Every structure is written in structure tokens, then in C-alpha cells.
Amino acid sequence: MDDFRFRKVKQNLGVFWGNFGLPLIFIIIVVVFSLSNPSFATRYNILSNFGFAAYVGIAAIGMTFVIMTGNFDISIGSMLALVAVLGSSFMPKTGGVIGVLATLAIACSLGFINGIFVTKLRIPAFITTLGMLFVFRALAFIYTNNVPVYISDRFWLYIGNGKLFGVIPFPVLLMGICYLAAYLVLRKSPVGRYIIAVGTNARAAALSGINVDNIKILVFTLLGLFVGISSIVNSANQGAANPGLMGQNFEFQVITAVVLGGTALSGGNGSLGGSLIAALIVTFLGNGMGLMQVNSYWQLVATGLVMIFAVSLNKLKFYLLGQGEY
Amino acid sequence: MRYAKIAFIAVVCLVLILTVSFLGCKKEAAVEGGGMAVTTYANASDITIGFSLWTMQFTFFQNVEKGVKDACEDLGFKYVMIDQNSDATKMVQDINSLVGQKVSGIVVTPVDPGAIGPAVENARQNGIPVVCADIGKSGPINALMISDNFKGGQLAAEFLASKLNDTTKPLGLGNLLPQWTYARQRGEGFLAKALELGYDVAANIIVQNPSAEGGFDTMQQILSAVPDVAGVYFCSGREAVGAAQAIQASGKDILSVGYNGDPEEFQAIKDGVLNATILQEPYFIGYRSVEILAEILLEGKFYENVEVPVDVKLVTPENMDAIAAEILKKTGNSAFPE
Amino acid sequence: MIKFLKLYEKIGIFILIVIAGVFLAIASPNFLKTDTILNIITQGTYGAIVGFGMVLAITSGGFDLSVDAVVALTSVFLSILIPNIGIPSAIIISVIISCCVGFLNGVIITKFGVNPLITTLSMATIIRGVSLLIANGKQIPISETRFSVIGTGKLLGIPIPIYIMVALFIIFYLLLNQTSLGRHISAVGSNESAARISGLNVTFVKIMVYVLVSFTASINGVIRTSQAMIGIPSMAPGFTLLVITITILGGTSLSGGKGNLIGAVFAGIFISMIYYGLNLIKVEYFYQLLSVGLVLIFALFVDGLRKRYLEAARIKGIKV
């Protein structure tokens, strides 16, 4: 009887930790930094960190979808640079809104190409995107002849630097809208169910009449779209699109955020909220340690340790729930 | 059906917000004037200098940091440093965070000089003057300290020419990765001067792996591409040291020149492995950047887009000891590895 | 046809090498020289050596992104230890310390259940930080000239790194194909739960794999440090990506269970040949990147076609 009750408590704890573990870690990090440095918990700093989290956070939505279907994309860093240089160089001709929409269309088509390679040519996603990592970067270099493209379009710049009512950075709003839309797609539409079905068991999904290839192409295209948005935000933050320096290590930052958020690399169900909070954790951690004047070498060590620690804490729920080999 | 309704509402909201924010952005467009309003301070102790640095992983930037830090100590300023970790996105975030901390002035050594525009604009709108310590800038800033990279390349070509004294001998160039656009002039200066002096730069190869062992690989490639190469110039010190080792291993007699004046290069020149290097003055760049900020903040002196060229010097085995002594006197750093 | 396809699985990359070789021999007069070819092979060994370790990791269903940091760690330890305790003991101690990194990776992955990708990525950051702390951010030249023999010396006209690669290849080949550990690695990679149920010590196997990856990375670190004669905490940036490219191009399946060591050797040489050869004929860096990417996609597309053909043949009942 006691054993049963103990297990019940453990299970409840597991459910609680599964839902609130990551936010708790985030809150702890924020509290620790706020106590240690007065300029951390200012409205300006917190809000601007939320804004900068959009860079990884928005692309993480697409990556969550892709990883949920059991795939993987490591070309997004190069894709980010290519989209930014292409988009920003069209900008002076097309102007504001049309230019942004065209940029997003380009981003979608790059993702679409990845999707076609993965599904129709049946090259595994990792290999396709590994190749594309080189190809996109090379194309960005060749297209610009390695001259950074400066952005002067006010609408484009506003997306990254603008402030709503002079307070809230526009990327925060953008990130919110993206997450809301992604949530609706994933949880309230049939497409979301198909994505989860394909990730859980592609063969079963195919047998039940889902066009697996189309779903995969769709998630890669969506990833392209979200990378495109990240790209606009990022290049607007920087005021320029640099073919070589944009998106360095971006793919690993995004994948880290998604995995930290609790989406399993093996596919299946994922957690959009988790990805968001993970992106926030990564951003706040970097900012907080800088404010605390931690030695830069120790910062590297601490970042790695926190990552491992956070992911293993995240695994605690499996242990508590008694699922799998925790 | 419910889904369609929610989606519809979401789209309407999105369009509304976009319109509102776009209108907002039209209104927000500030007047671009010459210069900026700077608050001056009476006491040095009220001033905090924020420093955003490329990375602490390379000797050059460590010396810039030392210069900034020492200057802050000497002038009695408080000092805050944030490491960009070679990440342009973090750089922008760091500069904004320095603005949030309400520092009095910012020194930045940007990983991507093209990408500091909006962040610097934000700082200057908040009345914080910005000085770039080396690398470069984009958009208006208060001052830029910049090493004369073009001249450095020219010096290297002149040195090789004076030693070889034979225009039939081909030269080699180990260039930097294309993304480091700021240092492109190191190669361009070399190519221009070599052309002027009548030398043929037969191999111009990018060091794909920007580290000493990458220089080693590239030197092997240069040796294969131009077997009778007589002199090489590498645009970065670490790479030059690796390349010099490859020359030794090949047993050929080839002149080699590096760039930066890092301790390992001094050691290599002393050991007779490397023939010369171009010395930059990172400590001075850092120190002077803070002095400029001090002039702006304490005396209210006007600085707007002022470029301060910083001279580069050729270091050869002959003048090495004198230069090393000078560096020790100026910075308190030994020019040689400890 | 089937026979050819079976052969292609093992030496497919070799065909690419021959094609590229013929092309480069026509394009550049300097290509067909002993020195050039030996250099290309030597530069191919760096990636291939670590590729052996990565083959094991991917065969066991894992991944290791910390190899570049381990190379740097080895280099820093070598530069500090050599003046104090002599070359041989310095090498042994640095390699052992680097193996400890692999051990830590393995423990975190197996005991804490953290995904290998995140573990090794975080570990790479940590190890970079540790190397910088140990070296105090400085680069430390090594003045002991005898040490340079390992990376730059020649025996019977052939550079020593090639011998090291051959020796490691034999060791890893025997390990993967002749020992029980090798069989267990494949078993864990193809089906972990089945391996666990059948009584394999999965934890031990995985930890061993990560130790071996770090071992190969540290051997690479020794070679590279002895060439550059300097300990650099920021050494080998982007090296992990090269190793992964080589492993994948070498035909090791990402789904685990099937490793291809000889493929890694050929792939290492092939990648080095692309960069080296294109530099000889003065192709711009941008186009070098482009060609690596396109070759990668193309080679693995062909490989996919081959697999599908074999699969179809198997379904038709032809003995494969």
C-alpha cells in the first residue's frame, strides 16, 4: 500500500517536473542573476534579452517540427546567411513589405529544396543538410562576392530593432505570434496530428493514409520559413547581412535549444513551449554571466555545465514516471 | 471550423499589429544630425567604461583588453568587460546590454564591424559615445582606432623584395578566411606592393583552418603549387608560425613573414624559424580608445567619425630586441612567451 | 552488377578519388609529383584518424562533437608538459588526460541519459574553456625540436603520420571485426534494447566507444602539435565538421550498426584532395566549399541508389 502511494507521489512529481521543470530552471537562473547584479533585472535588460532570444527561438519552432518527424537540419546557419544576403540585396528595389515577403518566400524555397532532397531523392536528412551547409554558405559568398550587404530599409530594420509603444522590442511580439501560430498548427489542426504520427511511426502513418513525404517536405519548408524570419530579425539587429559571419554555429544553438526543451531526437511528440524556454535560458545565461563579469574562460565551462545539468534534470521526469531507461 | 475561426482571428490580429507597428516605425524615424549629445562628467570616478571584445582567446585581443583595463585604472574609471565569444549576434546583444547598464562610454572591438550599426545607434541615442578599437565600423561612431593593415602588407612585400633582390623569384601569400573582411587589406597591400616592385605572387591561398596547423597545411600547398617559391607572407601570426615549421620540414630556404607580433612570432624570429613579422600595437589601441572617451566625457571634446590610424612596424631579427624592450617598457608585457 | 555494387560499398570513394585524380593531373602540372601526393595523403590522415573514432561512435548509435576541443586540450598539455617531463611521458600523459574526456562523455551519456549530441557539444565548450584556463589564454611554443619528428619526419620517404594512420587503421579494424567489443558496438548500434536484453553491458561498451573517440582525437592532437610546434587552446576550429563529413562520406550509416573504416580513410584523402587540388589550380575558396557540398550530396545520392537497387534485388529473390 505504502509502495503504491509512494509511486503515486513519484508519478505526480514526474508530471509536475515534466510540465514545470524547465520553467523552474529558467526562473532560478533569472532569480540568481537578479540577486547578483542590479542591472540584470531592469525592464530594459529583460525585454531586450527576450528580443534577442527570438534569433534562436523562432528558428527553434521549425527545428522542433523537423525533429518531431525524426529528421534533422544542420544547414540552417548557412541558410540564415544566404536568406539574409539575398533578401537584403533585393530590398532597395522592392521596398519594405514586398521585400520581406519575398525574402520569406526564398527561405521557404530553400527549406523546400532540402525537403525534396530528403524525401524524393531519399538522401538522409543529416547528409542532405550537411551538404547544403557547404552549398548555401558558398552561394552566399559567391552571390555577394564576400561584400556585406548593408540594410537601409526602415521596415526591415524595424522588425529587428523597433519597439512597440517604445518599450517592447518588436522581435518579442514576432516570436509570440510565431509560437501562437505554431501552437495552433501543431495542436489544433490535422497537420499537427500528421506530423506527430509521422514522427512516432512513419510506416504506420503511411498505412493510415498520410502522405509521409508531403508532411516531411512541409516541415522542412516551415523550418525554412522560420529560419527566414530569424534571418530578418538577425540581419536587422546587425544592420547588415554578412555572408561569412552570420549564423556561425546557429544550427547547434538551435538544436541545443530544441533538445533542451525536451523534444527527443528520435522523433515523436515534442514541446514547443520547451523550445521557447530553452532559447530564453540560453540567451539569459549568456547575458547574465557577462553582467556578472565572469571570466570568459569560466563562462565557457559554466555554459557547458549548465547545459548538461539542465538536460539531465529534464530527464528526471522519465525517472520519476518510471519510463524508459531514464 | 473552430480552427479556421481561430486562424482567421490570428491573421487579422497579425495584420493589425503589423500595420500599427509600421505606422509607428514611420513616425519613429529620427532626424540624423551631425554628432550627438553627450553628457559630460565632472568626476572621473562617476564614469564607467563598457568594453565589448571579440574574444579573449587570442593574444592580440588580450592585449587590447589589457590596454583598455590599464587605461581605466590609470584614469580612475570603472570598467565592465563583456566577451563576444566570436559571435556577431552576441556582440549586438552585449552592446545593448552595456547600454542597459547605463555605462558612460563604450569601447568595442567588433567581431563583425558591419554588424554594429543599429546597436551603436542605440547607444548614441542614449548619449553614450562609442569608440571602435581596431577592426572597423559601420555607420556613424565617435572614433575608430584602426591599424594600418594595408601598410602592413606593403611592408611585408618590401621586406621580401629587399632580401630577395631578384624579381624572377615567385612569392606566396597565405590569406585570411574571407569572412574576416576587415583584414583583407593585409593581403591587398602585399599584392599591390609586390606588383609595384615587379614580383609575381604565384600562389594566393586561403588558410582554411585559421590556426598554426592550418598554416602548416597551407604552406605545403604553396610548396606544391609553386615549388620554387622564394618568400611567403601569412596574414596572421599563428598561421605564419605553423607555415615556418612547414618550411623547416621541407628543408628549403624560403623567407617567411607573419603579421601581428604575437609572442610566439617573436620566439620564432629569435629561433631563426620566422624571418620577420609586422607588429601591431593592440595595447596602445586599447589604451588610446579609453583616452579618447575620457576627452569626450570629461572635457566635452568633439569627436565624430574620427579615424585614428595606428602605425605598424616591421620586426626583423636585427631590430627585434630593441622593439621587445620598447614593448616591455610601454605595456609591462614581455614580447616573448613566458 | 550485384557484385560490383557490393564492391562499390567498400571502395566507392576510391572511384571518386581516381576520377578527381585524373582531372587534377590534367589540370595541374604539379599534381603528379611524389611530394604533392604524399602531402595530400598526409593531410587526409588527420581527418581519417579521428574518423576511425567517429566511425565507432556512429556505429554504436552515438555521436561525438567534442573532438576539436580534445585536439586543443592535447596540444595545450603537450606544450606544458614537454619541457618538464620529456617527450614520451608528456605524450602518454596528454593522451590519457584526453581519454578521460571521452570517459566523462560516456559516463554522462550512459548514466545521466543525456543525449550524446548535447553532451559532447557541451563538453566541447567545457573543454575549450578548460584548455584556455590551463594555458591562461596564451599560446605556448615548444622548443624541443626532436618532438617535430612525429608530424614532419619521414621514414623510407613516407611521412610518419601515414604510418600512424595505418597502424591505427589495423588496430581499429581488428577491434571492430575480430573482438567481442567490436561485435558489441555493432549490436548496441543496431538495436540497443535488444543488446541490453541479451545481457550486454551497454554502459561499458558506450563508455569505451567515447574513450576511443577521444583517443583518436588526442593522437591527432599530438601529430598536429608536433607540426605546428606550439600549444594552442583555440586549435582546430571547425575540425569536428570535417571529421563528420569524412565519416559520412566514408559510408558509415547514421542509423548505426554499420561502420566503414576503409571508407573513412578514402574519404579523408578525398576531401584533402579536393581542397589541396583546387588550391593547386587556383580555384577560389568559395567554389571549393561549393564543390565539397555538391560532391557530398552527389556521392551519397549515388550510394542511396545503390542501396535501393540492392533492396529491390533482394525483394525479387536474387541472392545478395
Description:
- The complex is a heterotrimer of chains A (326), B (338) and C (320).
- Chain A is 77% helix and 2% strand.
- By secondary structure, chain A is mostly helical.
- Chain A has one domain: ABC transporter involved in vitamin B12 uptake, BtuC (Orthogonal Bundle), CATH 1.10.3470.
- In chain A, strands 1-4 form a two-stranded antiparallel sheet. A two-stranded antiparallel ribbon of chain A has the order 2-3.
- The longest helix of chain A is centred in the N-terminal third of the chain and has 35 residues.
- The mean pLDDT of chain A is 87.
- Chain B has two domains: 127 residues, Rossmann fold; 131 residues, Response regulator (Rossmann fold).
- Chain B contains eleven helices and twelve strands.
- A six-stranded parallel β-sheet of chain B has the order 2-1-3-4-5-11, sandwiched between helices. In chain B, strands 7-6-8-9-10-12 form a six-stranded mixed β-sheet, with helices on both faces.
- The mean pLDDT of chain C is 88.
- In chain C, strands 1-4 form a two-stranded antiparallel ribbon. Chain C has a two-stranded antiparallel sheet with strand order 2-3.
- Chain C has 13 helices and four strands.
- In chain C, helix 2 crosses helix 11 and helix 7 crosses helix 8.
- The interface between A and B is large, with 55 and 53 residues.
Record keyword descriptors for this entry.
heterotrimer, B: 338 residues, alpha/beta, Rossmann fold, six-stranded parallel beta sheet, six-stranded mixed beta sheet, 11 helices, globular, C: 320 residues, ABC transporter involved in vitamin B12 uptake, BtuC, two-stranded antiparallel sheet, 13 helices, 2% strand
Assess the beta-strand content of chain A as a share of residues. under 5%
CATH topology of chain A: ABC transporter involved in vitamin B12 uptake, BtuC
Overall pLDDT confidence of chain A: 87
The CATH level-2 architecture of chain A is identified as Orthogonal Bundle
Q: Helix segment count of chain A?
A: 14
* Number of domain units of chain C: 1
Please report the distance between the alpha carbons of the first and last residues of chain C.
11 Å
Shape of chain A: globular
Query: Roughly how much helix do the residues of chain A carry, as a percent range?
Result: over 70%
Given this structure, which CATH class of chain A is correct? Mainly Alpha
The multimeric state of the shown protein is: heterotrimer
Please count the beta strands of chain A (DSSP E, at least 2 residues each).
Answer: 4
CATH C-level class of chain C is Mainly Alpha
Distance between the termini of chain A: 25 Å
Number of helices of chain C: 13
Radius of gyration of chain A (Å): 20 Å
| Beta-strand residue fraction of chain C | under 5%
Helix content of chain C: over 70%
